[in-house]
Design goal:
Elements: H1 7-23, E1 29-35, E2 41-46, E3 52-56, H2 65-76, E4 84-88, E5 93-97, H3 104-107, H4 113-128, H5 141-159, H6 166-185, E6 188-191, E7 200-203, E8 206-209, E9 216-219, H7 222-228, H8 237-253, H9 261-288, H10 299-309, H11 317-330
Antiparallel strand pairs: 1-2, 2-3, 3-5, 4-5, 6-9, 7-8
Helix pairs in contact: 4-7, 4-8, 5-6, 5-9, 6-9, 6-11, 7-9, 9-10
Length: 335
């Protein structure tokens, strides 16, 4: 391509040329398969069988090496992950097996949810049993705090345009401190950080796990809570409670360090609040920074999750008061 060519067109040209070389087929084409909230994009091959997937991870925006490292770690622990058929790490291109066009988010319904979630728990238990290597990133205080800050920086300040007074800031800081302390007190295992139906793919042998590159060592309740209180799909509270109990039972049988049932349920509730606040902030950032507005339509889901949990814990009452008295009245109709 000419030196002054459009960067998007140049990337398209390079992606197709790399895919054809990796496939050994100069006639193969590519069509959009999916795009995630980050900078990666996924492309399905056309004109050949079986179809393959090209992951395009621009190296100046999203280094593919962490994805490859975590993939190898998970596969070594028995987790079903996409197989890599070819790679060019410096260019940011991977050729992967094609697991199909439908994630669990597209196939799950009230009738099959028990079976889907049981298969998901199987993969989650495999993941949590993996011993992280030395120096593996941790869900430490700094990371937990940085995630919570997304809520006040991007949702409260940027999206709602609110400036909190000193008392409100102190109340929010108090709740953040309690959430962080509770998270740090949980037993620690490998954490996917986005273990939900959209990142699980039905395959003949069960489910495959996607989007795992941000894994850390952290609270054991995090991924189970993420699975059942999804970012894009809500379930009745009684079914969520049953699935959490099912996970807890299977985790204990597998020898994982889950605490007693009531303690685990509290841990799940509290880490859920931390995650809900984080995701609301991320969704606001996706709109205001990245120009991706579609995620805002799911923000009310997370406030509904918190409405069901916060009244159970007096220690979190300052957050509920802030949400009810300041945030909800300021929320635009679109959120």
């Amino acid at each position: 391509m000419p030196r002054d060519a459009d960067p998007i067109a140049t990337r398209e040209h390079d992606r197709l040329a790399w895919a054809r070389a990796a496939l050994g087929d100069a006639t193969a084409g590519l069509e959009r398969a999916s795009v995630d909230a980050g900078f990666r994009s996924y492309w399905r091959t056309t004109g050949i069988a079986p179809a393959r997937i090209v992951m395009d991870s621009p190296p100046d925006k999203e280094d593919v090496r962490p994805w490859l490292r975590i993939r190898a770690l998970l596969e070594g622990g028995g987790v079903r992950v996409p197989r890599v058929l070819a790679q060019d790490v410096d260019a940011g291109f991977l050729l992967l097996e094609d697991l199909g066009a439908r994630t669990c988010l597209q196939v799950i319904d009230s009738g099959n949810a028990d079976g889907v979630f049981d298969a998901a728990i199987t993969q989650l238990l495999q993941l949590q049993a993996i011993a992280p290597p030395a120096g593996f990133p941790a869900y430490d205080e700094a990371l937990l705090a940085r995630e919570l800050r997304l809520f006040d920086e991007w949702f409260i300040a940027r999206h709602l345009g609110l400036t909190l007074d000193c008392g409100e800031l102190e109340a929010l800081e108090l709740v953040y401190r309690r959430l962080i302390d509770a998270a740090l007190a949980q037993p620690r295992v490998l954490v996917h950080r986005d273990f939900m139906p959209r990142n699980l793919m039905p395959v003949p042998e069960g489910l495959a796990v996607l989007d795992f590159q941000d894994a850390v060592v952290g609270p054991i309740a995090y991924d189970a809570l993420s699975l059942f209180k999804d970012a894009f799909l809500s379930w009745p509270e009684d079914r969520v409670a049953g699935w959490l109990d099912r996970y807890h039972q299977r985790a204990r049988e597998a020898g994982l360090p889950v605490p007693a049932r009531e303690c685990f349920r509290r841990d799940a509730d509290w880490i859920g609040v931390q995650r809900h606040l984080k995701v609301i902030g991320i969704f606001a950032r996706l709109w205001h920074r990245d120009g991706k507005p579609k995620y805002l339509q799911d923000v009310p889901r997370f406030f509904a999750y918190m409405d069901a949990v916060l009244p159970k814990y007096p220690e979190l009452a300052p957050l509920q008061s802030l949400i009810d008295n300041r945030l909800k009245p300021a929320m635009p109709a679109s959120t």
